[in-house]
Amino acid sequence: MTMNEANLIEDVKRYQSLYEQEVDLFKGRFMGKLQPASAESDSFIDELSQVFADQSIRLKVLEAAVRSELFVNQEIIELLKQNKSAQLGAQYFQNTLSLKANDLEALEGFAPAETNEEGVSYCWSIDNPEIRVPLLLDRSNNKALKVRFVGEVKPELISSMQLWVDGIQTQFDLGFDGEFNCLTACISESSASQVTQVVMKLQGVYSPEELSQGGDKRKLGIAIESISADDWVAPKVSLVRRVGRRVKRVFA
Q: What is the pLDDT of residues 72-99, one digit of tens each?
């Protein structure tokens, strides 16, 4: 995070704090002027409270956008799950996403980011075999999900895991992108304006200590370098594969 970004975050926080103080003062003054209370005044107070709540949520989304235009923290996800996503509007849903280690470490279920000897930053999933990653993703078309791995605490954790998107088990491919082993999957388009819930289910979490791999007592799963999403492009069948199938049919 740059110094300018850090300063902007602090400005947002200060503005939000002042805003909340002003709301409290206004509510006190407003209540004092509406005695005795009536059904009409109660209804008006409820309406104002909803306006204040919506504004507060927008401020929190702004803070998350400043931290990274691609990252939304758990607090905001919880707010959005309280049927607020439709009110926020489509402008808050990103067409492409790329979550790095410094983004992931703020999510529940991830350990603090680490950096290996090669300068690669990553986050371990920790404590829970279900790795939950909420994404504010524009689903107006199919999206390509990509998860890049640095390692796994136990062999075959990655190859045996399940991928679920919005409660639906989703097929995926495992491969190598030239730098990292990775998972790729197609997330189907959706007309709903809602948070996309990605869940990777592991067979378990284990401490390096219990696996005789050192003294680390943390219950770990897999180490993730990044999670990204972009427009889906259907893979092209190579000429070699097409020719191979033709040859097979000829000699069948």
A: 444 444 544 454 444 444 555 778 888 8
d(CA 97, CA 196): 12
Q: Could you give the dihedral angle defined by the CA atoms of residues 85, 230, 203 and 130, in that order, rounded to the nearest 10 degrees?
A: -20
Cα end-to-end distance, the chain, whole Å: 60
- Quote the domain boundaries for residue 62: 3-67
β-bridge pairing 121-126 and 220-231: antiparallel
pTM of the model: 0.62
Q: How many CB atoms lie within 10 A of CB 151?
A: 16
Do residues 126 and 208 make contact, with C-beta atoms less than 8 angstroms apart?
A: no
What's the number of CA atoms in the CB half-sphere (13 Å) around residue 160? 11
Check whether residue 126 and residue 206 sit in a common domain: yes
DSSP annotation of 235 reads P
d(CA 247, CA 97): 42
Per-residue model confidence as pLDDT tens digits over 124-136: 999 999 999 888 8
Domain co-membership, 204 together with 115: yes
